[in-house]
Each structure stands twice: as structure tokens, then as C-alpha cells.
Specification:
The chain has 6 helices and 14 strands. By secondary structure, the chain is α/β, with parallel strands linked by helices.
Length: about 300
């Protein structure tokens, strides 16, 4: 049930019930859609954190839901997951995360405006905690996370991209944005060292090293890494290291999860496409990113003077 205010703002009289919901909105003349997973563990009397989860190029929201396993993590840890849908032909969708030229129509789609509209719409449906909106995604969806952190840091508290590097320039930021970046050193789709001879010529993106260096500089993190190694329990041909910066502005961290032997995959989840490379089972990306997100909410807005 929705209640309309005189100013045209929609307020949820009661939040969405537990389960999976589909929603569409119109943004700049385009009909855009997204999925919302509401765990049954959330209480209507509290505000709800949200994780935006972006699919990769050539995929869609429902594929991201199945591939990431984030619904199960949301049920256990009590947050809402939102799966935005990109634009494109049929089920093969992409996001404008930057780094595209040539004749690709999606380069002109304003996906930042889409996410602004999505969050406004979502706030009419659930008791959204505006200080705890986070973003993750894989490949092109990971690049979209970087873009959102760069262009709407006032609404995105922290990001945790998987296998998707920076494809936009970082502007001067009003605050430090915490970043946890996951990447396999044997990723053949978004290579660790940046575009190679196998990369389509219309795509540009930074290497992993340049991506984390850009975020460390933007956040004012001191030089140097603290490096630790995860226990190699799965014996699956991968070895995982955590590179942690010292805190920068506003306590922001930059953390690189470096997966030696890892491919273009979601750590801790089954990989049904062998050509994408190995998936590490030594860690769970879902567990690590949620621990990271919990440490990094946006600061509450300052109260207006009387």
C-alpha cells in the first residue's frame, strides 16, 4: 500500500513483504527495471541496508541473482539486495560503466541517472537506510560500481567490484570512498594488466594496479600495503592474498583481494563456464564484502542549524 503526498513523493505505508519483487521505472525516456530481494529476517520498525548487485556484459539481473548467491547472504546477514538490469537486446544487457567507444549505443545511456532514480523509487517501497547503500558487481558490472563511487559518492557508501576495473577518470571527490576490489591474476576477460590483443578495440579500462593506485590517491591513503595470505584450504589451484592500505580521508580503506590463478569468476561460488577460468573456494566474496560494508556506512547527515 502506497500513500501519495501533495508534493508527489511516494512513501511506503508498509514495506515490501519478504520475497523477490520486480520493479520498473522510467528514466530519461527509457523504461528500466530491477529486482528486489527482501529477506524475511528484516523488521519493519528498522531501516534496511541495501546492496546493489550489477551483472556483467551480456547477462541480466536474474543471472546475477543466481550466479552471485547474494540472496542467501542477505537472508543470513539481514540486508536487501537489488539487481539492476542494464540495457541492450533481449536478455543480453550491459551497463555504461565507461570505457566504451565506437558504435555501441549503450555508451549514451545514463546509468548513473538510472541508479539515482532507482534509489528514489526504492525509498518509496522500503525503509531504506540511506547511510548504508553499497554496490558490487562483476566485470562490466564491477566497472559500473567504480563509476557510481566516482559520480555519486554522496549516496554510495562503499563498493566491492569483482573482476571489473576503473573505466572512468576519478574526479576530485568530496569524501573518501572505501573500495574492496576482487581480481584474478589469470582473468582473460578483464586482464590484470589491462587491455591486451584479445580485448575488443572499442573497450578501454585500467589495469588492476592502476585502479587501486587511483583510488588510494583519491582517498589520500598513505603509501604502502599490508599484505596477508588466506589459508589455502581448498587446494583448487588458487592462492589468495589481501593487500590493505592504511586508512585515508574519512577512514576510507582500499583493499585488493589478489587471487593468484583465479579467472573471471565470483570467489566462493560455483563456476559453470570453464572458459572463464578457475574460481577460488578459499574465500567467499559475499562474506568478505559484507564485513567490509558493515565497517563503512556513510556518515549521518549533519543536522541543519535551528
Amino acid at each position: 500500500m502506497l500513500t501519495w503526498l501533495a508534493l508527489g513523493v511516494v512513501i511506503a505505508a508498509s514495506p515490501l513483504p519478504p520475497g523477490l519483487h520486480e520493479r520498473s521505472i522510467c528514466v530519461e525516456g527509457l523504461r528500466r527495471s530491477y529486482l528486489i530481494h527482501v529477506p524475511g529476517t528484516l523488521a519493519a520498525a528498522e531501516t534496511w541496508p541495501v546492496v546493489l548487485a550489477f551483472h556483467g556484459a551480456g547477462a541480466n539481473a536474474r543471472q546475477m541473482l543466481r550466479m552471485s548467491g547474494l540472496n542467501e547472504k542477505a537472508d543470513d546477514s539481514r540486508f536487501v539486495v537489488v539487481y539492476p538490469e542494464g540495457t541492450g537486446v533481449g536478455p543480453l544487457k550491459t551497463f555504461n560503466g565507461g570505457g566504451r567507444g565506437g558504435a555501441m549505443a549503450e555508451r549514451d545511456v545514463d546509468d548513473v541517472a538510472f541508479i539515482h532514480g532507482l534509489l528514489d523509487d526504492l525509498a518509496s517501497l522500503i525503509p531504506l537506510d540511506s547511510c548504508r547503500v553499497f554496490a558490487t558487481g562483476i566485470s562490466n558490472g564491477g566497472m559500473m560500481c567504480h563509476r557510481l563511487a566516482a559520480e555519486m559518492p554522496e549516496r554510495i557508501a562503499a563498493i566491492a567490484p569483482v573482476a571489473g576495473t576503473l573505466a572512468v577518470r576519478l574526479p576530485p571527490l568530496p569524501r573518501g570512498v572505501p573500495v574492496m576490489h576482487f581480481h584474478g591474476r589469470s582473468d582473460g576477460i578483464v586482464p590484470w594488466t589491462g587491455p591486451n590483443l584479445m580485448t575488443p578495440r572499442f573497450l578501454t579500462f585500467l589495469s588492476v594496479d592502476a585502479t587501486v593506485a587511483a583510488w588510494r590517491q583519491a582517498n589520500g591513503c598513505p603509501d604502502g600495503w599490508t599484505i596477508s595470505e588466506f589459508e589455502n584450504v581448498a587446494r583448487d589451484g588458487t592462492l589468495v592474498r589481501r593487500h590493505s592500505s592504511r586508512p585515508g580521508r574519512d577512514g576510507s580503506e582500499v583493499i585488493l583481494i589478489d587471487i593468484e590463478g583465479g579467472g573471471h569468476t565470483w570467489p566462493g561460488r560455483p563456476n559453470l563456464m570453464i572458459f572463464l577460468g578457475k574460481t577460488t573456494r578459499d574465500i567467499s566474496a559475499n562474506d568478505l564484502m559484507w564485513e567490509f560494508f558493515e565497517r563503512h556506512p556513510l556518515p549521518p547527515p549533519e543536522a541543519s542549524p535551528p
